[in-house]
Amino acid sequence: MKQELCKAFCDSVSVTELPCGFGISTTLFEIEGDPAGLYAIGPDSTGHWKLEDAGRLLPSLIASGYDLASENRKKALASILETADAAFDEDGLEISTGPISKSDIPAHAIRLIVALVRVSDLVQMTADRVRSTFKEDVRMALAASLPSDVEIHENAPADDQSADLRADLVLRQSGRAPVALYLAQNDLSLVEAMLLRSETQGAGETRPLVTALLERENAVSKHTRTRAMNRLDSVGVYEGDERQALAKVVQFVSNAPKVAA
Fold first, then answer.
1. For the whole model, what pTM was predicted?
2. Domains of the chain
3. Tens-digit pLDDT profile for residues 145-169
4. How many CB atoms lie within 10 A of CB 173?
């Protein structure tokens, strides 16, 4: 069993000689879809080496919404890297160890790879958390901006005849047509919005208005976005112009067609 395990671990590791030292990677772990890896750089003038990442992980972490200006965030990141005797450079956005001997490279490499995988998980967790707050942020902002007589229903049908098609928010104001708002983070959300728009086409003055607010412009494919812009009553983009995107929704609700009480 020991020999089989050792062989499995060894077969997963590849070491590539480079002008600056060695590239080390393993298929046992993945970082952003690729085999986890790092570089062994050296030797320096004192005969020591250091391990460092490829310089892509911290930029990805920041792009996901992880704020390194926050002391708590920096401490959380540092605590992960300390398990591998590593640290990060805020200016160069690189992760590396201090000087080590060549004989210590294998043990330190394993520890650093595990730490890098944990940091990559932090990237995904941060991105998921940012995405998860989008709908709540919009709901809270609309609750504070819309007239007090507008009712906000979450995950609700906008039309009794299409009860299986639930919008993220249905905005109802007495005497006006309801507004079904889809908060789109993927193509499926826009497809459902377009389906609701199509199924309620012949509902007359009681037809719900169907609108969508994209979390960001590239949250959906260009093809689906183009179709939605041509088929829905209104489409907006949240990221980068949040205030105006919300104002557009508020104005849209206020201008909904009047209906018989």
1. 0.54
2. 2-131 (3.30.1460), 146-254 (3.40.1350)
3. 999 999 999 999 888 888 888 999 9
4. 17
